[in-house]
Amino acid sequence: MSINRTRHKHFNRLGFSLVELLLVLTLAPVIFFAVYSNFSTGVRLWKRIQVPTPQEDVLIFYEKSVKDIQNTMRSKQISYFGEKDRISFCAGVEADKALGGARGIGQITYYYDDFKKILFREVKDYSQLYRDAAGSVAPLLRDISSVEFSFFALNLSSHEYEWKDDFSGKGGNVPTAVRIRYVAKDSPKPVTETFFIPTGWAAKDKGASAS
Questions:
Q1: Which end of the chain has the smaller Cβ count within 10 Å, N or C?
Q2: What digits encode the pLDDT tens for the residues 96-139?
Q3: How far apart are CA 180 and CA 68, in angstroms?
Q4: Are both 111 and 203 inside the same structural domain?
């Protein structure tokens, strides 16, 4: 009889009583639900922060475009080319890490994908251009129904500056300004941004007038 009492006391010291077990089973779902609720709320907030708003997209687009277009360089090796839905120009770009990772001369291209409704930005360093290899491509502006580029340049016939729908730089020439006109999917009104190019003004053009 004393042996059974000893075993019972030993079991009580090592294990849980029925009341303690029921208490744990009752509180466990409450604690789990509280932890899960806080975790899921945190995940939703993180996802909301990570998704850019249209205003943020436009701001990022403007900052990148100003930096790219205003740094356009004159180059006979990398000619300026522009049409309604695409522009390519020579500018300073990040070089490949294998080449030291420093900034070098390369080509930046903006082009519009009508199917995806995205304006893309492609960057190629000089090595990629020489090997005709693909560059790095990233979305520049999303959810837009149309994009049009126009170019403020000298008309060689009239010797006046005017806006053109296309521009092909010969001998390293670049336009004086670029106008980007786009329409967001949720807005019927077009947005127009004009970017001036410091290298687009040449001393020999000072006698020309603007129209």
A1: N
A2: 666 555 678 899 999 999 999 999 999 998 888 888 888 899 99
A3: 13
A4: yes
Which DSSP string corresponds to 77-88? Answer: SS--EEETTEEE
Residues 6+ apart with CB under 8 A from 73: 89, 90, 91, 92, 105, 174, 199
- Residue 42 shares a structural domain with residue 65: no
182 in Cβ contact with 147 (< 8 Å): yes
Total count of domains within the chain? 2
Same domain, 88 and 38: no
Distance between start and end Cα atoms, the chain? 114
CB–CB of 112/138 below 8 Å?
Answer: no
- pTM of this structure: 0.68
